[in-house]
Specification:
The complex is a heterodimer.
Chain A lengths: L3 E4 L2 E4 L5 E7 L5 E7 L5 E9 L2 E4 L6 E3 L9 E3 L8 E8 L11 E2 L3 E5 L1
Parallel strand pairs in A: 2-11
Antiparallel strand pairs in A: 1-3, 3-8, 4-5, 4-9, 5-6, 7-8, 9-10, 9-11
Chain B lengths: L3 E2 L4 E5 L4 E7 L6 E7 L6 E7 L4 E3 L3 E6 L4 E6 L8 E9 L6 E4 L3 E6 L1
Parallel strand pairs in B: 2-11
Antiparallel strand pairs in B: 1-3, 3-8, 4-5, 4-9, 6-7, 7-8, 9-10, 9-11
Classes of the chains: A mainly beta, B mainly beta.
Amino acid sequence: DGGITQSPKYLFRKEGQNVTLSCEQNLNHDAMYWYRQDPGQGLRLIYYSQIVNDFQKGDIAEGYSVSREKKESFPLTVTSAQKNPTAFYLCASSTPGPSGGGDEQFFGPGTRLTVL
Amino acid sequence: GESVGLHLPTLSVQEGDNSIINCAYSNSASDYFIWYKQESGKGPQFIIDIRSNMDKRQGQRVTVLLNKTVKHLSLQIAATQPGDSAVYFCAENRGRGRNYQLIWGAGTKLIIKP
């Protein structure tokens, strides 16, 4: 089955520790995205990548880092510099759309990160 | 600033009635709009999309209307069912190529009354 997987589903971290969230897709999509969602709020873009070995900062990139060494994988590291990391993290992927734009994004199940 | 927003944070609808969820956008250059449904604790699921060369698009029990004159988008759900309870997000596209991204609205929570 094609899809996007995120692991782990729940993650606990002590203050001051870095943690890496996994995102893998087998949809052969070029583009991948990381969002943060706080309770009762919408999605805020952290980082995105339209092609391998290239990525762009989103609206709230501070305290986060990413890599895109493979088309299938787009891991997100939440660093100790992120002052309020407790949130629901969503990964998505998409194909390029017409005229250089994009298409619908397919989402993973999310990782809920809690800082203790 | 440019944003995608929603008129109502919560919408309560009687089961069986039609639901209408609204969304305003301010970037006249956006040419692609999407509606997503998010159930509690899950990732958003695609419902329906529409490109700016269209005014209306219908899916199964859902219709999206686009009014470019007033920069307004709406999602209509026919014969609302309990399974429609969720938060609904609209999104618009922004940028091209390596800068392409979706801009998301704040969401509307749809509550179905029995």
